[in-house]
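Consider the tokenized backbone below.
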């Protein structure tokens, strides 16, 4: 991984690639592939995610991280109060 850089407030110290690796690794067991949850360990998911990010970077992809989105529901939401 790269050295930590400021990324706009999401998990201080993580690089853009770190966030992308985490997000891809998090998504892998949720993919609709029979048996993937039981087959891949957390370490294996992380290694797959790192390989995907490295390949995308080699292909010229640029990554940006937008501000977290707030959804509808019981949490904080609606119109911001001033």
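A designed sequence for it:
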């Amino acid at each position: 991984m790269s050295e930590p850089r400021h990324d706009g407030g999401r998990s201080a110290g993580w690089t853009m690639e770190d966030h992308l690796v985490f997000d891809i690794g998090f998504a892998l067991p949720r993919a609709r592939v029979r048996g993937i949850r039981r087959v891949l360990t957390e370490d294996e998911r992380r290694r797959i995610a790192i390989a995907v990010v490295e390949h995308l970077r080699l292909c010229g992809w640029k990554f940006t991280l937008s501000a977290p989105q707030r959804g509808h529901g019981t949490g904080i939401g609606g119109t911001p109060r001033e």
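Helices lie at 16-27, 36-39, 42-58.
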